[in-house]
What we know:
This protein has helices spanning 9-24, 31-46.
Amino acid sequence: xxxxxxxxxxxxxxxxxxxxxxxxxxxxxxxxxxxxxxxxxxxxxxxxxxxxxxxxxxxxxxxxxxxxxxxx
Length: 72
């Protein structure tokens, strides 16, 4: 098996997601440990956030009009 430090960024993200998914669905006994190793390598490479291409939007959220009646 390839060590997480030897993978490219995209392969690392894909494998981390794959191992985490297997761990959540009870795929194998080592899936949780492997997911943690890959996620630790992601934190080491990318810092705290692990989203690679999710820009933060600074626009205000749209306000929904309030109903004119009150629901008690």
